[in-house]
Amino acid sequence: MQPTLAKSISLPVLLAIGASAVALAAPARAQDAVAAGDASEGGDIVVTARKARERLQDVPISVNALSGDQLRDRGAVDVKDVLRSVPGLSFSGTERGLGNYNIRGISTVASAPTVGIYLDDISLVTIATTFSGAFDPVFFDMERLEVLKGPQGTLYGGSSMGGAIKYVSARPKLDEVGGSAAAGVATTAHGSMSYNAEAVVNLPIVQDVLAVRGGIYFRHDGGYIDNVAGGSFTNSRYSSTEPGFTPQRQNALSTRSASNQNDANTYVGRLSLLWQPDESWSIRPAAFYQHYKLDNPGQFFLGEKKLTSSYRIAQPTTDKAGIYSLDINKELGGVQATSLTAYFDRKLDYVRDYSFFIGGLVPPLLGLTSDNLSASRTKTFSQEFRLASTNSDAPLTWIAGLYYSHQDDNLYQIATTPGATPVIGTEVGYVGDTTTITKQYAAFGEATYKLLDNLDVTAGVRLFQIKQVVDIMGDGPFNGGLTQVIGRRSNEKGINPKFGISYKVTRDNLIYASAAKGFRPGGPNRFQINPVLCAADLNQLGLSKAPDTFDSDNLWSYELGTKNQFGNIMFNGALFYTDWKKIQQQINLTSCGFAFTGNAGAAHVKGAEAEARINLTRAFQVGGTATYSDAKIVEAVPGTTAEDGDQVLAVPKWMLSGYASYGAELIEGWRGQIRGEYQYQSRSRRQFNRTLAILYPSGAAGTTPNRAEFRGAYQVVNAFASISDGETEFRLYINNLFDNRPFLDTDLTAGVDRSTTIRPRTIGLEVRRRF
């Protein structure tokens, strides 16, 4: 039972892996073979997108990377703070842990995400529902963020049909005692103060053999939404005028007053150990724990002059996650063996005010206060073994591996309205308990052959099987009474191939082309929907009942790209085309508050990306990115509200960014830097529905244009300045300089018209000391 627009569903925690095809720069020690080491090499960012150290400009796929220093310079807390400057990456949802990422137009609101999330090659993908989305690690002691474009199914599995977001954490150093400490404070316009503190220590225990690295992090994000007592709200499901349409305005009946109520605290702890008994071994156990507590969501009521709401109860969200892994590497004379064992445990709980939602379904209950508790728990174990060649000078380089994961996901939800028994016969309007067991098996391989010294061809394949079992219990009047489904199963097998060719014109000029298949399994729908209660919406879709299952979808993506360095000018560009069939999409039934996943036909995505950087002088640099995505439904099917020619959901047609940076010596030993950046996204479709069903004062039914059909275009300007002597750094930043407040996730279906926005103008100062 879901009163909000569908958000993300996190499916089988595919604890990553997939591995690298080409060990292009085989290092001398096993430690270096699996780590990115320093963020740069000769001024070039080094990445491990293909599970080997490679200069970013040498990787024959589209990858964007930001080093840890670049993330800190921007004052970035998590990936949402930098996504507008990454070509082709966009996002729906604003709350951490409840969002949905998409890359290059491969966007969907359904149970299985299209973008994989990884921390050190461990998949953080979980089943996505309205009550759970992508897990968002904060940028703490991160060496790098990598965004991989296009299907990454060969190396990263089925949840990466659109691409992958890869967090790379800093590794222990065997020969260096060091660390850092930082503290910061910030103020948000019309909001409260934010502050943060962190500390990291790296300690060799046995020189060149054993080292430990650990750190702690705390952050308080000040709120900027006020909750007012005695306020009012509008409900676009009802019109107060007839004819014509005016959203009905009513007293919210709230006695709760709270300033800056959407503040949040984040606690993080990291610990890793690196043991190299000799140069052929690398053994690294690691643990990461993050606890995020949001006091109230960042939703505000529409029709108000300020960012305010009038909810009746507090609505906390708690997201706790632990990631535990053991990464073992062994050099075997020209072959590197890798074993990655991981366990991901996430618990997401939240309380929401359902008074307006339930009061919209049953008007006599509007005077009563309703609450909803949702509790999601996901536990995933994964194991991967792989072998990879290490001689980059050989004509043939290769990788092969096996992968297994077991994910146990449970969602418990209960909606309660004290005092509702005279109207609906009980105080519990809905209770649901759904458990999903997902097992994945895969064998994969990828090889690159040098036809000439500067001409490589690549081929790869992933064979997989995914089994799911779902048990569903629902009860209460909004469920139509007790329903139970025991052992609803799905079992799918598939093959993901990949082909590529690259030509090195010079060391700094690369041309490449690729074709790859992406696949996402189908499965059982996780709600048992009563066809009588939801008849109005089902009839509009041409259905007599919601489907029990949904089919798999798949795509073929083709890319032609180039990466170039011309003296002081860097230019990368790519053209891409994707043929996507049987798109999985969540279908909302607004008359009863439920949703199911269906297949919304086929889509074609055509687009281009460009990225440039120009060093005008040694001190002055300018650059920018541009992405054009024409993502359209080309074959709509009955049972959804999509139509041929519709934009795919949550995909801006244009994404632009630009920046200018200047750095210079200030006084002996101290260097200063200033940077300004501009980010723009064009409008994007948020819903396929062109109209909303409404009721007039006379009781007659009608429709009105859906004001939430599109999200409007918006722009953001950020700036920062810093001074550093290499050990001590002072950084001043301003995010959202002009205090823009675009409506991001507008919802007109929850009984109260509401939306979210980006954080208002925030000015912060941070001090960092390295030792």
TrEMBL record:
What processes in GO biological process is this protein linked to? iron ion transport
Its subcellular locations are: Cell outer membrane
The TonB-dependent receptor plug domain, residue ranges: 56-164
- Where is the signal peptide, in residue numbers? 1-25
What are the TonB-dependent receptor-like beta-barrel domain coordinates in residue numbering?
A: 226-737
Does Lipid biosynthesis show up as a keyword for this record? Answer: no
Matching SUPFAM superfamilies: Porins
Membrane topology, as annotated, equals: Multi-pass membrane protein
Q: Which UniProt keywords apply?
A: Cell outer membrane, Ion transport, Iron, Iron transport, Membrane, Receptor, Signal, TonB box, Transmembrane, Transmembrane beta strand, Transport
Please indicate which superkingdom the organism of origin belongs to: Bacteria
A GO term from the CC aspect = cell outer membrane
Q: Where do the segments described as Disordered lie?
A: 239-258
Write down the InterPro entries for this protein, in alphabetical order: Beta-barrel_TonB (IPR000531), Beta-barrel_TonB_sf (IPR036942), Plug_dom (IPR012910), TonB-dep_rcpt-like (IPR039426)
Family indicated by similarity: Belongs to the TonB-dependent receptor family.
Q: Which PANTHER family match?
A: FERRICHROME IRON RECEPTOR-RELATED (PTHR32552), TONB-DEPENDENT OUTER MEMBRANE RECEPTOR (PTHR32552:SF81)
What name does this protein carry? Answer: Outer membrane receptor proteins, mostly Fe transport
Q: Which organism is it from?
A: Rhizorhabdus histidinilytica
